[in-house]
Design goal:
The complex is a heterodimer of chains A (408) and B (310). Chain A is α/β, with parallel strands linked by helices. Chain A has two domains: 23-137 and 294-361, D-Maltodextrin-Binding Protein, domain 2 (3-Layer(aba) Sandwich); 138-293 and 365-406, Periplasmic binding protein-like II (D-Maltodextrin-Binding Protein, domain 2). Chain A has helices spanning 2-22, 40-53, 66-78, 92-96, 103-106, 109-114, 117-121, 145-150, 160-171, 189-199, 215-229, 243-252, 263-272, 307-317, 320-330, 337-343, 350-355, 369-379, 390-406, and strands at residues 28-33, 59-64, 85-88, 124-125, 128-129, 132-144, 178-180, 205-206, 209-210, 256-262, 277-280, 292-300, 360-361. In chain A, the strands form three sheets. In chain A, strands 1, 2, 3, 6, 7, 10, 11, 12 and 13 form a nine-stranded mixed sheet that branches. In chain A, strands 4-5 form a two-stranded antiparallel sheet. In chain A, helix 15 crosses helix 16 (337-343) and helix 18 packs antiparallel against helix 19 (390-406). The radius of gyration of chain A is 23 Å and the shape is globular. In chain A, 50% of the residues are buried. Chain B has a single domain (62-306), classed as Orthogonal Bundle (MetI-like fold). The longest helix of chain B has 40 residues, at 6-45. Chain B has a two-stranded antiparallel sheet with strand order 1-2. In chain B, helix 1 (6-45) crosses helix 12 and helix 3 crosses helix 9 (207-235). Chain B has 310 residues and is mainly alpha-helical. Classes of the chains: A alpha/beta (408), B mainly alpha (310).
């Protein structure tokens, strides 16, 4: 009897102890998305240790893969246990819900002024910086040099007309060669679409209002659907092909003439050494090609008594040595002026660094984008399937975007 | 004598306390693992949440009303019915045959029995990823096999073609459900006493008649368990449908469980409250389905068969 009681007391005490460890006690929770199995954990683990050694509190570091990070973060917030520092590809919904510190509260002025202009603007919600740029990437046009040579093509295409002719010639090589690999499946369809959309003269918004079904956009999506169904120069079912295990995989296997890639793909291609490839600017209908820049964010969550700890941690990450070390390891692009200077000498990055100033960002500063993005990912693929209806799909996306603008 | 009476009463009272203490941990476990999450789910289904997960107050039954208005709901319900019925039915029929085979003595039987466990022991995500590669249009083993032996004139995009996605998923569902079901049936076969078969032989019953009139009725309790557990398991199965269907836009091939996940985290809805409402509906659906099944097969008969009165 006494033994049982003692056991119960012990269990209760243990439960209380655990609770304190997980919850309010001293220490900060840092959630980072897993950019790669090789580098992400190693870098942040070392950074957390350095931080604690320099007198900071203990860091509860959580590296979460991209597939489940939205789910886990939502659950944390739903249970009233938000992280202190969060890394994600969106921020404005969190800012709108009043969960975040503005940058001026948690970053020293030097760090704030070091951000590249475009990325600092991409992190603003209602005129204030909340989404601190953590790294960036820029898409570029990749082509297979061996297949180009076989098809008698010399330089990458500059216009959409060239592009169609090139794709036909590549496809005509036969033996399973694919002219252009188009990933409009749910994984990253919004990125693939945005690049074509901009180079077709359209945009997500016109004068601050959603313009997803503009005439230019309908033309562009019809062009893409024709590539798949009339010209037949894409892989099978482009509306149902994801990027990483679909289009990139085919390109890495040497089956594809052209694909839109980014610097991590180049890194993988170099490591495998199987495909000779070139990197160029996007073919365009405009005078000047545009590409997509992607900015990911760090956010600082407002919690009781965590401001100083968070500030220390962020300032440590943004020390030029640290941020550049990580961005280089992961194969991404800088977000700071000092980082840009440091990475300039790397010739392999030149095409992306050159593209960076002209790169356009998704409208991440608008909280409605967080829904629009998911809607585009889930639905735009249907437009390029056989019998798909590009205008109908864009009309529906536009209606949903307008509705999302009013919703929370 | 009378004077001693209160003492045992006190002892019993004390024991009751003690019993509660001994039961305490398991009661706490049931409370924590079953009742608390269920209550939390119901509570979430009555609330509105911002896209970030911030609770914004109660909305009553609004989430349930909005759930019924989802245009994809009927497609998803049909998919779920097809998915569960096909996987469970085919699994049970194939398992009956497999168990019969594995019940016969033959050289290497132990090895085959062990091999059967493999798809069960492997993680569902891994198995699903493996099948994604097997089904792949360009690299997949299935297309290479079928085109080289001339069954197919050209490769099929098994996971991209709307006509074949569900069938491809069902095949994987059956593959991973077979081991468990076969073992349940095997256990059922082992529990049938040999004398019954001897009697049948003496009566001159044919093999088929013996199987149909003797083995099957005596297997009823085992089959009942196999069907009920499989229905629950297949209905709630997430990894197969999620992994094999991840390339397809929209909800055309989702089941209730992947629909719930997409509502919560992956679609433009991004609505925890609506997803929780669907979660509650899912629990009720599976309860109703299982009860209806038990009623039609008359659970009591099964009990009778189990006690050997059939």
């Amino acid at each position: 009897m006494k033994g049982v009681l003692a056991a119960v007391v012990l269990i209760a005490a243990f439960a209380v102890a655990c609770d304190r460890g997980a919850g309010g006690g001293p220490g900060i929770t840092v959630v980072i998305a897993e950019y790669s199995k090789d580098h992400t954990r190693g870098f942040w683990q070392a950074l957390a240790e350095q931080y604690t050694k320099q007198g900071g509190p203990k860091v509860d570091l959580r590296i979460i893969d991209w597939n489940s990070i939205d789910q886990q973060v939502t659950t944390m917030i739903q249970n009233n246990q938000p992280p202190d520092v969060l890394n994600l590809n969106s921020f404005s919904s969190y800012a709108r819900d009043g969960l975040l510190y503005p940058a001026e509260d948690v970053l020293s002025p030097n760090t704030r002024e070091d951000f590249l202009e475009a990325f600092a603007r991409g992190g603003q919600y209602q005129g204030k910086l909340y989404g601190l740029p953590i790294l960036s990437s820029a898409r570029a046009f990749f082509y297979n040099r061996d297949l180009f040579a076989k098809a008698g093509l010399e330089a990458p295409p500059k216009t959409w007309n060239d592009f169609v002719q090139y794709a036909k010639k590549l496809q005509a090589l036969g033996g399973g060669v694919i002219g252009y690999a188009m990933p409009l499946g749910p994984e990253e369809a919004q990125a693939e679409w945005a690049i074509w959309m901009w180079n077709g003269g359209g945009d997500w918004k016109q004068a601050d209002a959603w313009a997803i079904n503009s005439d230019a956009n309908v033309r562009t999506l019809t062009f893409l659907a024709d590539l798949a169904n009339r010209q037949r120069v894409t892989q099978v079912n482009p509306g149902k092909t994801n990027r990483t295990d679909g289009a990139f995989q085919l390109f890495k296997d040497g089956k594809v003439g052209m694909v839109i890639g980014f610097s991590p793909l180049a890194k993988q291609l170099d490591a495998e050494g199987k495909v000779k490839y070139g990197v160029a600017e996007m073919p365009t209908t405009l005078g000047k090609p545009t590409t997509l820049g992607v900015e990911d964010y760090l956010m600082a969550f407002k919690k009781k008594d965590n401001r100083d700890a968070v500030k220390k941690f962020l300032d440590l990450y943004y020390q030029p040595d640290n941020i550049t070390k990580w961005i280089t390891a992961e194969g991404f692009l800088p977000v700071t002026k000092s980082g840009l200077e440091r990475m300039r000498p790397n010739a392999a990055l030149t095409p992306y660094l050159d593209a960076l100033p002209n790169a356009r960002l998704a409208p991440t500063t608008d909280p409605a984008w967080d829904r629009v993005k998911l809607d585009v990912q889930q639905n735009i693929g249907a437009a390029v399937q056989p019998g798909g209806n590009p205008k109908g799909v864009l009309d529906q996306l536009q209606r949903n975007a307008v509705a999302a603008a009013g919703a929370r | 004598m009378r004077a001693e009476a209160p003492a045992p009463a006190r002892a019993v009272k004390g024991r009751r306390w003690e019993a509660l203490l001994w039961l305490g941990p398991s009661l706490a476990l049931i409370g924590g693992v079953v009742f608390y999450p269920a209550a939390a789910l119901v509570r979430a289904s009555l609330g509105r949440y911002s896209i970030t997960g911030v609770y914004q107050g109660s909305v009553g039954a609004d989430n349930y009303v909005r759930l019924l208005q989802q245009p994809a709901l009927s497609t998803v319900l049909t998919n779920t019915a097809v998915w569960v019925a096909a996987v469970v039915a085919v699994t049970v029929v194939v398992s009956l045959a497999l168990a019969q085979l594995l019940n016969q003595p033959f050289p290497g039987r132990a090895l085959v029995r062990w091999a059967l466990i493999v798809p069960w022991a492997a993680s569902l995500i891994m198995t699903s990823k493996l099948f994604v590669w097997i089904y792949d249009y360009y690299f997949g083993a299935l297309n290479r096999l079928l085109t080289s032996v001339g069954v197919l004139p050209r490769p099929v995009d098994w996971l991209g073609d709307d006509a074949t996605v569900m069938g491809a998923m069902i095949a994987v569902g059956i593959f991973v459900s077979l081991p468990f079901t076969t073992y349940v049936v095997l256990a059922g076969l082992a529990s049938i006493p040999g004398e019954v078969y001897e009697a049948a032989r003496v009566d001159g019953a044919s093999r088929w008649a013996t199987y149909r009139r003797l083995t099957l009725p005596l297997l009823k309790p085992a089959l009942l368990v196999a069907v009920v557990l499989n229905v629950i398991y297949v209905f709630n199965s997430f990894p197969i449908v999620w992994t094999l269907n991840d390339r397809n836009p929209g909800f055309a091939h989702d089941t209730m469980v992947t629909f719930m996940y997409k509502i919560a985290f992956k679609s433009a809805l991004r609505d925890v409250g609506l997803a929780a409402a669907l979660g509650v509906v899912n629990v009720l659906l599976i309860l109703v389905a299982v009860l209806a099944y038990l009623r039609t097969v008359r659970w009591d008969d099964g009990e009778a068969a189990a006690s050997g009165r059939a």
